Amino acid sequence: MKTIIHKANTRGFANHGWLKSHHTFSFAGYQNPERMNFGMLRVLNDDVVQPEMGFGKHPHQNMEIISIPLKGALSHKDSMGNKRAIEVDEVQVMSAGTGLTHSEFNDSKTDDVNFLQLWIIPEEMSVKPNYEQRMFDVSERKNQLQTVVAPKDKIEGEALPISQQAYIYRTTLDADNAVDLNLKSENNGVYVFVVDGEVEVADNTLEQRDALGVSETESVTINAKKTSDLVIIEVPMN
Q1: Is the model's pLDDT at 156 over the cut of 90?
Q2: How many CA atoms lie within 13 A of 158 on its CB side?
Q3: Domain span at residue 196?
């Protein structure tokens, strides 16, 4: 088993006034050659957008983009004709493929929006762009793994499709509970991100916004020391 720990206070940080963003991996003005990716997971940004502010129209190409709101609602508009808000307990996926443009905006006059945005490198280039979002039942991740994203050719239940052999799980663990994750492939690794709480993984204690990458293993056990909310990303390592 191989592990790499990324403590919350070691992340890159950018304060743009209207946007405060923590970068787990190199992104924009934060460039760290030791933090380029974890396997096919290229970006994990923890963004807080002020009221009545947001990202103007901008392009993406050949990337799988996953957004997970943690607080508030983020309005989305794109070149495929989608115009919707994504809310807490929803997940949004975009396969940028041959190219698309989109904007994201906090319509609230009073409340910040906090969301995670992940970029996963696709397994095939120049696919037809795709957009989907779905609300997931919170009860189905209580003390168990809930699959919210899966490969488009291996969809499980209500999971949203992406163009990569990668999976994203959510779980909310009560204190003194545990979950076991059996990896789908020996080539995969798993990246455990603690939204809130405290857990133990592979003899490492992780607290709020800490993360641990684990590879060269068949399974990972996550033990909750406190009530904890987790996002878990399983990706090919090469």
Answers
A1: no
A2: 13
A3: 2-236
What mean pLDDT is reported for the chain?
Answer: 97
In this prediction, residue 173 carries a pLDDT of: 98
CATH of the domain at 193: 2.60.120.10
Structure token digits, residue 70 = 């943690």
- The pLDDT of residue 53 is 97
**Structure-token pair, residue 112:** 């910040």
CA distance 166 to 235: 5
Number of domains in the chain: 1
> Under a CB-based contact definition with an 8 Å cutoff, are residues 132 and 91 in contact?
no
Banded model confidence at residue 108, pLDDT cuts 50, 70, 90: very high
Strand-pair partners of 73: 87
For the full predicted model, state whether its pTM sits above 0.85: yes
Q: Which of 118, 130, 219, 100 is nearest to 166 (CA)?
A: 118
